[in-house]
Structure formats: C-alpha cells, structure tokens
Write a structure and sequence with these properties.
- With about 220 residues, this protein is mainly beta.
- It is built from one helix and 17 strands.
- The protein has a four-stranded antiparallel beta sheet with strand order 13-12-16-15, with no helix packed on it. A three-stranded antiparallel beta sheet has the order 3-17-7, with no helix packed on it. It has a three-stranded antiparallel beta sheet with strand order 4-5-14, with no helix packed on it.
- A hairpin with a 2-residue loop joins strand 1 and strand 2.
- The chain is rod-shaped.
- The termini are far apart.
C-alpha cells in the first residue's frame, strides 16, 4: 500500500534546501579580483620544468626519510657567491706546490714566472720557498727564487744571473734576461764581458689557500 508524502513535508524540505543553499553561497560568495591578470596570481609551485625557480620561504626536504635527501646531478653548489663543484673536506687543508725553471732561447737567457689564484674568498699563504744561491764564485750571492703572495695569488719566479765584467772586475746581479757579450779594445784585449748563468735546478714554492678570520673567531 503506497503512502503519499504530505505536502507540508515537501514544503518544509524545500525550504530547508533553500536555506542551506543560501548559507553556502554566502560563505563562498564570489569576490571580484583586485588586480588585472596576471597580477595577483599565486606563485608557481616547484615543478620539473627547465626554467630556474625561486622560493621566498625556507625549503624542508626528506621528511619521509629517503636515503638521499638532495641530489645535485649537474652544476655547482652555491652558498651566496661562494660556488663549489664539490663539498669541502672538513678538517683538511690542501697544500699546493708549483715549480718553475728559467730557460735559454737562441742566445738569450730568460727568467720565468708562474702564478696560481686560490678560490674566491680565500688567501694564498706561503709555506715554503726553495733557495738557490747564484754567483758564489764572485762572492756576490743572491737567491734565484722569488716567492710572493698577495690576496688570492701565489707567484713564483726563477731569475737568471747577469755578470758584467769591466776590465776584469765582475759585477753580478739577478736579471729577467741576459745576453752574453764581449767587447775588445784596440789592442785585442778583452775590455768588457757579460756572462749569463741559469740556476742548476728548478725553484719550488708550497702554499695553502686559507680564509681570513676576524680576531676572536
């Protein structure tokens, strides 16, 4: 036996639905944008696209406990302007070594210098500089190896020896280049000579790249 629904119940149900609709519409009422597109859009989320992406707030990774929290496939890791291709090794300070030798080209002797620039933010600190004494036979020794540091740069130069002999009295000094020469007087006697000499071995310099620290650090 079918029972008819009372008209009062139908009216009451309809009224309840209308009231619920009005409440929901009020809660999520349409609000007119305050800026023209694309202004006012929400920030683009991090994605797999090729464009560089930025995020104003902090970034927390690996809350799920993955074995590798962050993998850098290519490129450098930058902390501000300090960019590195690998992680620094804690507690390890590398000592660098470089060597250089003067040389002869044609009839001229030439000194030679080399240099090395430490990474940005560090300073070259000299640890060792070899000593090669020259012209001991004339009693006028000088060190053929010149080591220097300034800021990030470490430099090493090996000089040649140039001896001017004027009427048998030699005067030797370091030089950047030297060409042997002999001048004879009218009688055929040696009047002035220039002798050149290379150091017997290469000059060696050792240095480290350190970071300056403020007093008290």
């Amino acid at each position: 036996m079918n029972k008819l629904i009372s008209p009062k119940i139908i009216s009451l149900s309809f009224a309840v639905l209308v009231i619920l609709f009005l409440v929901i519409f009020y809660a999520v009422a349409w609000q007119e944008p305050t800026q023209a597109p694309p202004q006012g859009n929400i920030a683009t989320p991090l994605n797999t696209g090729p464009e560089n992406q930025t995020k104003e707030g902090g970034l927390t990774l690996n809350t799920g406990g993955s074995e590798n929290a962050l993998v850098i496939d290519q490129g450098k890791i930058c902390f501000g302007s300090d960019c590195r291709s690998s992680w620094p090794r804690a507690g390890v300070i590398l000592t660098y070594q470089m060597s250089v030798s003067a040389y002869v080209q044609g009839n001229t002797y030439y000194s030679k210098g080399i240099s090395y620039n430490c990474p940005e933010g560090s300073n070259a600190i000299q640890i060792y500089c070899s000593t090669i004494m020259m012209d001991a036979r004339y009693g006028q020794d000088f060190n053929a190896c010149v080591c220097s540091t300034g800021g990030r740069t470490a430099s090493l130069t090996q000089q040649v020896s140039k001896c001017d002999s004027y009427m048998g009295y030699p005067d030797c000094s370091p030089a950047s280049s030297c060409t042997p020469y002999t001048w004879y007087d009218s009688g055929g006697l040696e009047y002035m000579s220039i002798f050149c000499e290379l150091p017997p071995t290469a000059c060696v310099m050792e240095f480290q790249c350190g970071v300056k620290q403020a007093v008290g650090e």
